[in-house]
Specification:
With 146 residues, this protein is of the alpha+beta class. It contains 2 helices and 6 strands, in the order αββαββββ.
Amino acid sequence: MGQILKALPHRYPLLLVDRVQSLTIGEEIHAIKAVSFNEQFFQGHFPGRPIMPGVLQIEAMAQAAAILAIETLDLAGSGKLVYFMAIEEAKFRNPVEPGCLLDLHVGFVQKRARVCKFWGRAMVGDKIASEVKFTAMIADPPAEAA
């Protein structure tokens, strides 16, 4: 968890990567999100039938992509941030419920110094929960207020 916290600026309740299972520099990452009934969004999405919102599944994949980009581009400790630029071809296949382990598989489609494109697939067991292609920008940290 320490490495995840070093790579990402996100913190509870929006930190959506719990563990990095494997990471191949320059290629792909397999991360895990343990989906707990205590997640704040389950209070209203949906009472009686809790389902993890698709947009949060995409956010979890984006956070895994940020870890991959930061490690690949050797940016750890630089303060650089990874921002969404575009989400394409998002598809939601199966619901993600409390108690699931959400396997986040993300890889590079294209990588450059400032803009990277990724593919992502979120799985529960052998079922695809969601899949997406997205673009992210590597940005400088915000300037300190004087």
